Amino acid sequence: MPLDIVVGAQWGDEGKGRIVDLMAAEADFVARYSGGDNAGHTVTVGEQIYRLHLIPSGIVQPHTTAVLGNGMVINPVTLLDEIARLQQGGIEVTPQRLRISYAAHLITPAHRALDAAQEQARGPDQLGTTLRGIGPAYMSKVGRYGIRMGAMLDLETFADAIEMQVKICNRRLTRLYDAEPLDPHKVALEYAEYARQLAPFIGDVSVMLNQALQLEKRILAEGAQGTLLDLDHGTYPFVTSSHPTAPGAILGLGVGLGYVGRVIGVTKAFQTRVGEGPFPTELHGEIAERLRGTGDQPWDEYGTTTGRPRRVGWLDTVLLRYAVRANGLSEIALTKLDVLSGLPALKICTRYRAGDREFTELPLGPGDLSPFEPVYEELPGWDEDIRDIRSWNALPLEACQYIERVEDLAGVPITLISVGPERSQVIRV
Ligand code: IMP
Q1: Residues 247, 391: one domain?
Q2: Is the confidence at residue 1, as pLDDT, over 80?
Q3: Does 13 qualify as catalytic in the annotation?
Q4: Are residues 404 and 258 in the same domain?
């Protein structure tokens, strides 16, 4: 089937960008279907590093058409900036190559102000959002006063719509949160200019993608964030406000279920998380610092969007099995295996314990993980630097044992292993 979906199997930042970049070599369309500029994807091609927040990473492959689907929320400032930066980096971004769904929703500065005000009002219970206005933009959508990208095609009514929405948000800002209101007229003027620039990119991507699918063109749906940040299936309330899981691709692009082929879950060889929320296998101290890196390299464990150091821990296969189920994963791509080199012993969480009971599946989903203690299995580590290895047979025996054990515990095959950030640093199994 011609629609493959790549999703994050953890809390985001699994290295989806590089897996997508690789798979996009064989795709005609690359499509983002949920979230907004809270995402951060890094693609390294030779000396060039591309950091993307909204545009699918697959755009780096010159033959692809990139799509922003109806499930997304779009900040036009970020989008225009990203288009300009890609063009400076030699990537062509024309209205033929980048198509934006008329039904995606707009993020305005009022949404960002609300995000900050809501977080502050939560006090010690903050979610640790990226402050990009994602939650409030989806609230506007669900509340049915959101503004869709298609509104940018009619400049006369667009400015009024923006003013109206900023006024609605202002009432929340001032009455609920005692925060400063925004100037609706100023925002409307600013957004009219963005509308002029973005109008040529906006259209009905569902029609375009369905026609392409009928012609057996290949579409790669590119998930942002990760399974455990899904609004319904994640560690609620420490989640994002969209559906990064694979079913989100169907809803967020307007394509049929029958076209789905591979569903690839990307997971690091260990576990990371940014922001607040439960993390049963979290580590502190020396091993944590080793896994996180120093921050000198773009692939070290610091947020691409916010620069925050990521929390790190051992791989949790209770949560990985959950991701297999929530997404219907057909396979797994394992990233950052090279980071484990040099650790004398590796732990994998195989089940949880609460009191005298053990669980291999979550009894009530991942919302409240506080009653559980991880139960680990220990495997031997390896010393060899594996970054230049390109075949399974050349991997140290201990690395093969680690991968095979993860595969066993997850219940689906591992078909790709990445051993470094470069496009070529991949082992196909
Ligand atoms: P929001 O999406 O900005 O509302 O943030 C909600 C939660 O999702 C926070 O814990 C963020 O750190 C997390 N989050 C959102 N986007 C990403 C991402 O792309 N990678 C990792 N975490 C993310």
Answers
A1: yes
A2: no
A3: yes
A4: yes
